[in-house]
Amino acid sequence: MSLVATAPPSDGPIIAEVDMGADSSAPVVRATVVQASTVFYDTPATLDKAERLLAEAAGYGAQLVVFPEAFIGGYPRGSNFGAAIGNRTPKGREEFRKYHAAAIDVPGPEVDRLAAMAGKYKVLLVMGVIERDGYTLYCSVLFFDAQGYYLGKHRKMMPTSVERIVWGFGDGSTIPVFDTPVGKIGAAICWENRMPLLRTAMYGKGIEIYCAPTADSRPTWPASMTHIALEGGCFVLSANQFCRRKDYPPAPEYVFAGTEEELDPDSVVCAGGSLIISPMGTVLAGPNYEGEALISADLDLGEIARAKFDFDVVGHYARPEVLSLTVRDHPTTAVTYTASSAAAKTESSQKK
């Protein structure tokens, strides 16, 4: 296996590509994970940046491109939204108003633009967004095919710690695995990758390319990604933002709680660490902690069968008579209107 570094243009991101030495009997897919920062509170500018990065990745032959968690809408790193037990501040409420305004409706015009980008550059696109559903926000991943069609979404099931102040909880209806021309693709976001039952639900759907958009740049993250690749017998593509303090609004508009006094504009507040791992646990590209980058590898899909020869977690290595999982995959809503349900059933029966 050889590591091939492709020299970028002087003003472009770094690209690392890995030749897996694949044979011609199995498909090979060029995948790219994007490591870059949001233009915070400016969704149109972030969409423009996403298109530039997508065009560049496509220019290097990418067929699948994965963006970080919350790339559209922004990851509110360091903010506590003025919340404490028993108290919320007016400034924190205004922060939430601005954050809500930067989120996107799904479906909506921003989704239409992302779909058009995927079709224009002929790539399968996996994009981390902040989804707005009324006045509740969700940390979501959107999927688009290379023909420019929106496929669906995954909502983060379990926001971590203070994220729960501003993000809702996804349910079992948005744990998709899409069968695409480049393989079966799904996603789990950041620390929900640590949830064994969620991973098992995705393995049960036959996931082959496991996307893991994240905000975790700590040195322990690659170990988690390697474990998932080995456990699931799948490729793992983890994309994180690389951010400096200057990528967020300045104080006092935006404050990194507890650390603001220690930061200067060039201080790194998220160091990236994006990487791609094979089903055998080999790191194919990354982790990159140097700056914004496009990190690419050629995925030999034959490696999936080679890995599952001796460990298929929901197949020949499973013991369903002893251990099994039931997934409640129906949508959950706070309010159900019985008259509407009855009308829908009547209309359905009339069509038969």
TrEMBL record:
Residue stretches making up the CN hydrolase domain: 29-301
Catalytic reactions of this protein: 3-cyano-L-alanine + 2 H2O = L-aspartate + NH4(+); L-asparagine = 3-cyano-L-alanine + H2O
Catalytic residues (positions): 69 (proton acceptor)
UniProt-listed GO biological process terms: cyanide catabolic process; detoxification of nitrogen compound
Keywords linked to the UniProt accession: Hydrolase
EC numbers: 3.5.5.4, 4.2.1.65
Gene3D superfamilies referenced in this protein's UniProt entry, alphabetically: Carbon-nitrogen hydrolase
Taxonomic lineage: Eukaryota, Viridiplantae, Streptophyta, Embryophyta, Tracheophyta
GO molecular function terms noted in the UniProt entry: 3-cyanoalanine hydratase activity; cyanoalanine nitrilase activity; nitrile hydratase activity
Protein's UniProt name: 3-cyanoalanine hydratase
Family: Belongs to the carbon-nitrogen hydrolase superfamily. Nitrilase family.
Entry annotated with the keyword Ribosomal protein: no
Pfam families cross-referenced by the UniProt entry: CN_hydrolase
Coiled coil feature spans: none
